[in-house]
Design goal:
It contains eleven helices and seven strands. It is an alpha/beta fold. A four-stranded parallel β-sheet has the order 5-4-6-7, covered by helices on one side. β2 and β3 (40-41) form a beta hairpin. The radius of gyration is 17 Å and the shape is globular. The N and C termini lie close together (6 Å).
């Protein structure tokens, strides 16, 4: 897609449980990403990664309204905390809640972590997912249908919980999951990762989520966990890094750089 592409400089070669990269990845001349096997990656969409209260909604609005990325499905309703909209798909947020809940975690309680993506994939595959996955007519299935790797439009998937659950969703984009080889292309989405000063995030969480984040220290710990997981989980896909400060400084120039 042009711009600055960061695909991770020190990928884990171990392979592990199938959630870590095993290929050398570099930029290609046509704006895609070229792997060591010669495949050109042309992502069908993007995922926005960033901690809660880090400006992800502002970034999402710029990418959706300004750049034309589609946010399919039912949207989260605006509220007093975010009057201009979240640019998040309701079913996606509830599906992520389901993935975390099945492993005894919540967005603000990660003591049972880290999140195990391969376990989550097997739970979905074997119909053992948390009840939230199938609630509202099938949150998980609707989310996967909305964000298909063979979509004809460029979509945007946004939810701060993706910092934690991204590796499970990347497995849902593999050829075997959808029963097609996508013409030999890796159809995983690209990532736009944004961050905000940790103390600003912790203060915002403490004020806006009364009782949920009891102390600034708790907010800072969450900031570390979310940002570390976002960086590690996206290290082997096309990734662009921005920040709340850069977007506020010059939104138009920064979005042009990101794209």
């Amino acid at each position: 897609r042009g711009g600055v592409v960061d695909v991770g400089s020190t990928p884990d070669k171990s392979g592990g449980d199938g959630n870590t990269p095993n290929e050398e990845v570099k930029s290609s001349a046509d704006g895609g990403v070229l792997t060591s096997s010669g495949m050109i990656l042309r992502p069908p969409g993007i995922v926005v990664l960033g901690m809660h209260r880090s400006g992800t909604s502002m970034l999402g609005g710029l990418l959706s309204v300004g750049a034309g990325f589609e946010v399919p499905g039912k949207h989260l309703q605006v509220n007093s905390q975010n009057k201009k909209g979240f640019y998040e798909t309701f079913e996606c947020c509830r599906a992520n809640d389901a993935l975390l809940s099945k492993q005894d975690m919540k967005w603000n309680d990660l003591k049972r972590g880290p999140f195990r993506p391969q376990t989550a994939v097997e739970q979905v595959r074997n119909n053992k997912a948390h009840r939230l996955w199938n609630k509202h007519g099938g949150n998980g299935k609707k989310c996967m249908n909305n964000f298909r790797p063979d979509a004809e439009v460029s979509w945007m998937m946004k939810d701060p919980r993706l910092c934690l659950t991204l590796r499970a969703w990347l497995r849902f984009y593999t050829p075997g999951w959808h029963g097609t080889d996508f013409g030999g292309e890796d159809r995983r989405p690209a990532a736009v990762f944004t961050f905000r000063h940790p103390l600003e995030v912790a203060r915002s969480l403490h004020v806006r989520t009364v009782g949920t984040i009891p102390t600034l220290v708790a907010g800072l710990k969450l900031w570390v966990e979310y940002n570390v997981r976002a960086i590690v989980n996206s290290q082997d896909i096309c990734r662009v890094v921005t920040s709340n400060e850069r977007i506020l400084g010059d939104p138009l120039m920064e979005i042009e750089r990101v794209l």
